[in-house]
Amino acid sequence: MKVNNPAVIASWASLLDPAIAIANAPTVPFPQWLTDFTGLHEWPHFDPPYIPLDFISFDLLPPVPRHTQGACGAVGPQWCLFDCANCVSYDDVYTCPKLSQTFDDGPSGPTRQLLAGLKHRSTFFTLGLNVVHFPDVYHETMARGHIMGSHTWSHKFLPALTNEEIVAQVQWSVWAMNATAGHLPKWFRPPYGGTDDRVRGIVRQFGMQTVLWDFDTLDWKMLAENAPNSRTERDIYAELDKFKQTNGGRGLILEHDVHSRTVGVALNIASKLERPLTVPQCVGGIDYIKQFPRD
Ligand SMILES: [Zn+2]
User: Fold this and answer.
1) 9 contacts: CB under 8 Å, gap ≥ 6
2) Who has the most CB within 10 Å: 38, 53, 169, 178?
3) How far does the centroid of ligand 1 lie from the alpha carbon of residue 105, in Å?
4) Rounded to the nearest whole angstrom, what is the distance from the C-alpha of residue 220 to the centroid of ligand 1?
5) Could you tell me the sign of the dihedral formed by the alpha carbons of 174, 16, 2, 213, in that order?
6) By the 8 A CB rule, do 195 and 9 touch?
7) Is residue 259 annotated as a catalytic residue, yes or no?
8) Residue in 146, 151, 155, 256 annotated catalytic
9) Given 83, 104, 216, 257, which residue is catalytic?
10) CA–centroid distance, residue 184 to ligand 1 (Å)
């Protein structure tokens, strides 16, 4: 299945700031249950170790060739690549009955600015590495009723990774969310929209569902280091207005809560939406796979 409104896939290197992980220790304590399970005592840096899980079976995964970002000719269309072909599978969420926002790459400082101005519930796809460094922002996001989803541990392009590396990116993200807030996420967004039937297969074994988009603000291009201001707020609003006219009020918007400028765009867009929905509301799904009681 192919999405009619082609989403231009982000080609940035992520706004995840390497300085955060190197200069500051995580503030979420490494839980004893995770030490018992992994034998480790601290949160990983950018390349988390693979820990085998009894509910993950690589034998069940389709033999999709690995590809790096942009190397689209290396993989046939039968493997349903979103990053190359905007292909979506039967259980991917990529649109919403009401035009709604989603926010990737937090939590971080600018997330607070967004939270202060948002008048409706939304969906945040978080990076595990950021979650353990900004747990207060994560808790505030949750407390305001927003849905927390996973965006991997450290923002790697998943189709280029081995099965073990993909599992590690997902499992450490889930553990970061569980250690911070006592829940297991249901909704998963692959960085750069990088997914194929092998990546989806692993995500499904975690019980999670892939969430994509049908309108990409490309808000990160406003901040591109090699081409600053190659995109402006005005470009985004003009394209979104056009999308609204052609898409009948439906849609799922991709944005980033990582910079005051992208947050400014987000708040402006938010002020014009009519009763937007969270991702689970878009499809009648559950908020989390499990929420553990907190002391
Ligand atoms: Zn991202």
Assistant:
1) 82, 83, 84, 192, 193, 216
2) 169
3) 5
4) 10
5) positive
6) no
7) no
8) 256
9) 104
10) 20
pLDDT value of residue 24: 77
The CATH number of whichever domain residue 245 belongs to comes to: 3.20.20.370
Residue 211: inside a domain: yes
- CA-closest candidate to residue 63, choices 170, 192, 163: 163
Burial class (CB within 10 angstroms; exposed 0-12, middle 13-18, buried 19+) of 260? exposed
Domain count, the chain: 1
Query: What is the residue range of 262's domain?
Result: 94-290
User: What percentage of the chain carries pLDDT values higher than 70?
Assistant: 92
Q: Could you read off the pLDDT of 174-190 as tens digits, one per residue? A: 999 999 999 999 999 99
Nearest to 147, CA basis, from 279, 235, 267, 28: 279
Amino acid at 230: S
Classify residue 202: in a domain, yes or no. Answer: yes
For residue 82, being part of any structural domain is answered with no
Read off the pLDDT of residues 45-80 as tens digits, 9 standing for 90 and up.
Answer: 999 999 999 999 999 999 999 999 999 998 999 999
What is the whole-number distance in angstroms between the Cα of residue 243 and the centre of ligand 1? 22
Q: Is residue 15 part of a domain?
A: no
Q: What is the pLDDT of residues 237-273, one digit of tens each?
A: 999 999 999 999 999 999 999 899 999 999 999 999 9
CA 36 to ligand 1 centroid distance, Å = 31
